[in-house]
């Protein structure tokens, strides 16, 4: 979210990829005029108190994240809750920092869309993050095996450990490691390429670091190899990517 360019982009990312567990709560987004709403609907309503808690907890978390990412003063315009008013309704207004309406037709956290650039915006990193999230949607968290290999690669991407070295670190043979990767529809080469892509594109998007340094930090032998890889990953040259983000 911190790489998003505007509040709307940050909210889109949160609601598209970071909802609470769908076993308990459905979150969707609605836009009307200059208002952007997060609409929450409990999956099970047999326990009203639990449903109220889940909705308000989700709305409070989204409010905190928006204030952290966009600016401390940015928060919801109003909150609409389907529940009846509590004994002390003012505590809700203090928590959200805006008017809170009770007995509404739906649970909505309403933001006013503003053209306020986010200080940490980085279009290239934002595109990369969304692309990776889209690829992982529905795939669940990385397996333990994948996590072990990725950690080993990230720790020394300049001179990445070999398959044999990684296998030895987890007390299995290289042949066993290859078989497990195959069973998980993964490959050492694919994971290494993925981590090099993450490192290289992040460096290109966040600084004017010379290409030679980007190549070195990403584990490429020279800038020519890096340029070919970037073209393969994105369809663009490094200079085109950097111009796009200016």
From TrEMBL:
InterPro entries: AraC-type_N, Homeodomain-like_sf, HTH_AraC, HTH_AraC-typ_CS. It holds the Pfam family Arabinose_bd. Gene3D superfamilies: Homeodomain-like. Transmembrane segments: none annotated. Keywords: DNA-binding, Transcription, Transcription regulation. One of its GO terms (molecular function) is transcription cis-regulatory region binding. Residues 147-244 form the HTH araC/xylS-type domain. This is AraC family transcriptional regulator. The lineage of its organism: Bacteria, Pseudomonadati, Pseudomonadota, Betaproteobacteria, Burkholderiales.
């Amino acid at each position: 979210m911190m790489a998003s360019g505007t509040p709307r982009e940050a909210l889109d990312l949160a609601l598209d990829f970071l909802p609470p567990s769908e076993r308990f709560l459905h979150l969707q987004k609605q836009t009307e005029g200059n208002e952007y709403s997060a609409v929450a609907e409990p999956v099970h309503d047999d326990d009203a108190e639990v449903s109220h808690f889940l909705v308000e907890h989700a709305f409070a978390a989204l409010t905190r994240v928006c204030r952290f990412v966009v600016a401390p003063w940015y928060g919801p315009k109003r909150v609409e809750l389907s529940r009846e008013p509590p004994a002390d309704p003012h505590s809700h207004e203090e928590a959200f920092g805006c008017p809170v309406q009770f007995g509404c037709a739906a649970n909505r956290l309403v933001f006013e869309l503003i053209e306020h650039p986010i200080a940490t915006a980085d279009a290239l990193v934002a595109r990369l993050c969304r692309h990776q999230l889209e690829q992982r949607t529905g795939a669940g968290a990385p397996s333990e095996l994948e996590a072990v290999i990725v950690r080993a690669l990230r720790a020394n991407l300049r001179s990445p450990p070999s398959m044999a070295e990684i296998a030895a670190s987890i007390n299995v043979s290289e042949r066993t490691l290859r078989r497990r990767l195959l069973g998980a529809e993964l490959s050492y080469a694919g994971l290494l390429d993925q981590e090099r892509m993450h490192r290289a594109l992040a460096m290109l998007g966040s600084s004017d670091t010379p290409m030679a340094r980007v190549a070195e930090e990403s584990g490429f032998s020279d800038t020519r190899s890096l340029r070919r890889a970037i073209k393969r990953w994105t369809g663009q040259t490094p200079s085109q990517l950097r111009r796009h983000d200016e």
